[in-house]
């Protein structure tokens, strides 16, 4: 078996960042480092004790917020020894007239694929407006796109492209209360790249269909296999056990079955043994994937990211455990 070096874990300070709020809730997020669990603590500023939550997600919505009360939020990976400085948030009086989130369409700048544009539209009457955007990398803060939009639509050019989600919000300059946030929004390249890298639609184990861009932000395994292949039938249960354990841990992991079965009937029977997604047997993309990845034998298991780039071309040889997943995630989405 080929040696696979697991990089040592990097402990980074994490700080919660405000994403959205309404009259009674606030939503915060932090950098997704691929940790198995995150410890989130919150309290009212005047309280002594913290309330602890253990979460798999890097996003949290806190309900029952009290107007005019300051809250503190802090977060760390469950295995980290200390917290970063807390987010201090005083919940505003929103009332019943908070403006709805803007509609946003993102695209590449025509001459530079490292930059994005965002076209925003919203419904409101009081002008001018302040408009902000957020790169949800867990490091960046809200950035002012304009402080004097004179209409209910605008286009912001030259937004740095990153493979993380984005968010957008606005408010009249005369009001301190922001609209609801539009986000998290996946940048367009991830949706386009995943459609091209796999297939436009995928099958679920229950027979329904999902769009491949829904895999954005996940570690994606392409599993080339067939029921007639003895080694495949041996590897599939091991991969299924690993897949289900990662799902239970809340890891952003998905597997896509690319069949080399000889008939639709064989495909249907084999796919019923699998808990993940599949490229439809009758789709052109199934054979195109085999050709593109130069499959010479099965089973073959490859790891790709949201861009469709191959991260590990021989993932079948790795130990199927959480440490391996964390290494894949770091290679997929390290910035």
Automatic annotation (TrEMBL):
It comes from the Eukaryota. Pfam families: Thioredoxin_8 (PF13905). It catalyses: [protein]-dithiol + NADP(+) = [protein]-disulfide + NADPH + H(+); [protein]-dithiol + NAD(+) = [protein]-disulfide + NADH + H(+). Residues 191-325 form the Thioredoxin domain. The keyword Membrane does not apply. SUPFAM superfamilies: Fibronectin type III, Thioredoxin-like. One of its GO terms (molecular function) is protein-disulfide reductase [NAD(P)H] activity. Its EC number is 1.8.1.8. Belongs to the nucleoredoxin family. This is protein-disulfide reductase. It comes from Aphanomyces invadans.
